Amino acid sequence: LDLSFSFRSHPSIVEFVNRFFQFHFQSSSAARTAHRASHQALTPARQEQHVHERVEIVQFDATTGEADKRDSERARAIEARAIAAWILEKITAQVPIYSTKSGEDRSVEFGDFAILVQQNGDFALLESALADANIPYVTFAGGGFLGRQEILDIENMLRWLADPLEDHALLGVLRSPFFSINDGVLYKLFLDESGSLWQRVKSASKKPELEVLQRPARILKQLLQDSQVLQVADIVREVIMITSFDVSLLALPNGRQKSRNAWKLADFAVQYNQLGLSEFVQALTSMRELGAGKQTDAPLSSENAVKLMTIHKSKGLEFPIVILPVLGRKVHQSSPKLLVHREFGIALDTSRSMDDPRPSYFRAAALLNAEMDAQEKKRLLYVAMTRARDWLVMFVEQNTRDDVSFRLWLREGLGLADGDLDAQDNACAAQRAALHAGEHYSLRYIDEDILTAWEKEGAAVAGRSVSDEELQASAEEIGFDLLKPLSVGEPSEDNTVPWPATLRVTSLPDSEPHATVVGNLFHAAMQRLALTGKLEDRNSLDVLASEELAVVDSELRAKLVDECSRMLQTYKGSRLADLLPRARKFLPEVGYTTFGEDGQVQDKRPDLIFQDENERWHVVDFKTDRLTAEEVPEKVNEHSAQVLEYVNDFERLTSFRASGWLYFAELGLLVEIKSPGFEVGNKGQLKLPFVSR
């Protein structure tokens, strides 16, 4: 097998990589050593025509007008914004991407982009810029799971539960998405109250002007009580559920990933149930500090989302479009006091201060060690560039220090660097001259003004937009007019409406309420019933339909209220109405996430979980379909597997066994589910394994 053939990359990318790395890898025979990589040119197996160059270099300037002063944080932010704008530009232009399935070109999608960085610490600003531009993305972090902020927030909560006098941990909990208490309230706590922070919170929560502390005080008190009797994994689960931490995280940038990470920690904690709470917290701290027990982020669907990952994690993968940012990171940090390598043995730095001279042998070993690091990083850059299938773009900052870095090598190879370069042989000089001439790549320059204009051009495609025709087709399918109530301001030139603006329900003439909307109203009413113990009257149902379901048409809302009122009246005579008033605990519409062995991720939300007076648990799924008693067996067969999934998940998450039920609101019928399906008898009749009550 000839490994020099590249079946992955576009010929333009292959030619660029060949020329660039022949300049950087190849050296004269006199200088060649074992740790230096030799160059072997790739041969492109793809035969596409060079319609336009597929390698792009984007130079950006982050200096300010104050004597060309550079702010490193500002530089990183500008680069991240430029990447988001570049992605939107390609989406707008619908650049061609080769489909490996059809063998033909297709239009680019968000899922075709991959941003490869050198370290996990490079993700934060990139994630923020993508979120600001409404670009979907998923981060494949290396081993940084335990260092994620959402995990640290939960760790702070556990630390405080283990020691209620740990004020620093509680301060972090109050300021985190658990409660989002602002600094003004916390400052007032320290001015007006005394004692530990927990004592201050309890005392201040009784004051009308600090009612914002009532919820934290109530929840924290409950968690303190439960943490005395629950195992570690159960405590983590209760912390997430009782505070709605996972829901709060969804409102943050990359919220889906953060929310699933929180639930992954709950699953991770199961293997440490033998530890006490303080021991588990100490174990998390030790694993993070020592780099032991590395965990990656919870898996997340990445089908149509930009992918962020480290170059190391990308080895063996390929992506239609590869973006390489943060190229100015130094390839070699300062040498430690002790160097050990088979090339030079052991070298020890015996100097005691900056003024002391370092031993000659150590200085020589340090130089060799730095050279080996540089050669290894060149191989890493080669890996990054060769992940690209159709497009390769690199972002290079101008007017900054030329430390030994990917950025310096690019500027040298492309003739963008100042100063004399090391002498190379004639063949390398020819390759370098060709790169200098701009062959096989395009060069673009941006500054703050250009970037701002660029962002405005790409803003129109950020997020999902649909045309009037698409909306009307959806309206006809479900029986609702999604267009007419949306006349807010002047219509856009392209006549599109962003998806969030369509989340309102209005009726078409002579239409009946859609079953989905009726079901949503009934679910909301039953959730209120579980929490308050009271059935909703017509006025309350009207408020629910108007405010929570956004039903803006008064006639349609009246029909919805009539339907839901009838179902609630039927409920009064049902078996479920006998059980709920005597129940010990209610968990209405609790959401959770499961991770399969194959990496599949599923979000689930059973309608009601409750514990009856005999301490037995029940999982109930509501069905609001209009049906007759004769149609019940078919519906039971259709939904029984889903109910039993909820039951099995509940047992895995809590270690409690539960019974599964379907409640048919139309008939007031509660059906216990015993098995996930039915058998067909000899004459074709259905033998249904359920018991109705």
Describe this structure in words.
The chain is built from 22 helices and 25 strands. 42% of the residues lie in helices and 15% in strands. The strands form eight sheets. A seven-stranded parallel sheet has the order 7-8-6-9-12-3-13, with helices on both faces. A six-stranded mixed sheet has the order 16-19-20-21-22-25. Helix 1 crosses helix 15 (426-436), helix 4 (149-162) packs across helix 5 and helix 19 crosses helix 20 (554-572). It has 693 residues and is an alpha/beta fold.
Shape: globular
Which strands sit side by side, in order, in the main sheet?
Answer: 7-8-6-9-12-3-13
Rounded to the nearest angstrom, the distance between the terminal CA atoms is: 69 Å
What's the total count of β strands? 25
Number of helices: 22
Question: What would you call the structural class?
Answer: alpha/beta
What fraction of residues sit in β-strands? 15-25%
Low-confidence stretches: 418-434, 463-468, 470-511, 678-693
Mean pLDDT: 77
Largest sheet: 7 strands, parallel
Q: Name the assembly state.
A: single chain
Helical coverage, percent range: 40-55%
Cα radius of gyration in angstroms: 31 Å
